[in-house]
Amino acid sequence: MTDGRQPSGLSGANEGWAVVGTLFAGVVVWGGIGWLIDLWLDTTFVKAIGVLVGLATAIYLVIVKYGNTG
Amino acid sequence: MSASVILASECPPDDPGFCAPSVLEFFPKPLATFDLFGAHFAITRITVILWIATAVMVWFFIAATRNMQLIPGRRQYFAESGYSLVRDGVAREVIGTEGLRFAPYLASLFFFILINNIMGIIPFAQIPPTGRFAFPVVLAAISYILFNWVGIRQQGLGPYFKNNLFPAGVPKLLYVLITPIEFASTFIFRPFTLAVRLFANMLAGHLLLAIFAAGTVYLFTVGNFSVIFGPVSFAMTVIMTFFELLVQVLQAYVFVVLTSTYIAGAMEEAH
Fold this sequence. Notes:
The complex is a heterodimer of chains A (about 70) and B (about 270).
Chain A: H1 13-41, H2 46-66
Helix pairs in contact in A: 1-2
Chain B: E1 32-36, E2 39-43, H1 45-64, H2 74-95, H3 103-118, H4 134-155, H5 157-165, H6 175-221, H7 230-268
Antiparallel strand pairs in B: 1-2
């Protein structure tokens, strides 16, 4: 991953925001899918499961993409 | 005489209380309306501010590059420094030598956003057209189409989506979970946050300045002990004006840097 190319003074900030965005995206996407499943199956708890699954997946994704083995 | 005289379009005329500015600031009375191909257009003072600001910026660059000398005069020097800020400081730094062909677009983007943001603190204008959501949306849409177009052209349609949606180093089963996140993060959140970041900063900054300014007038003219808070409000107006200038320049810069980062990301997967 070529992350040496940044305007000086922004070192790492881009990656930081990408990490935050990924976590947020994970929660929103899978929370949203869980919410839709809730509407479809008339349940109430799938939202929460979706949020947790999304958060876990997003954390895993952050480690894979931005972790220190990269 | 109450503060409501100043904000006449929003406030009931006989209300003795403080009439705070609201988002209605961004919806002034139209100066002219017309319909074209079924779409309704309204020209307001914000539209005129946008035209004037953009015209000033365009005029500046045209005038500065008209009779270019080897040893630059002041106007040419400023224009060259400004362009170099984007071309070398952003395009070349973030994207690399490949990025130089995006420098014209990035520079235009930067200076367009900058001049329109700054209209938020210029007297008599004092409202940033970029605080109307449509303008950041269109700018973000152009950047969005651009970085996707560049990525698809560089890598081919299939490999571009494959590289974006299926990151390497992940067990195949987990792709079910990960791909929706990657899709949303690249193709939905990126343009959305680009637009909203600029819009929200300009909207909030403008409302902040408007409230302090209107508050200053109200506190000085309401006629009771509140007048001792008038200078506080005035000082805040001045301080926030400078802060707002910083935010305006920064948001223009951030928009362009992020666009460059997305372009760089779209191009780099090739190796």
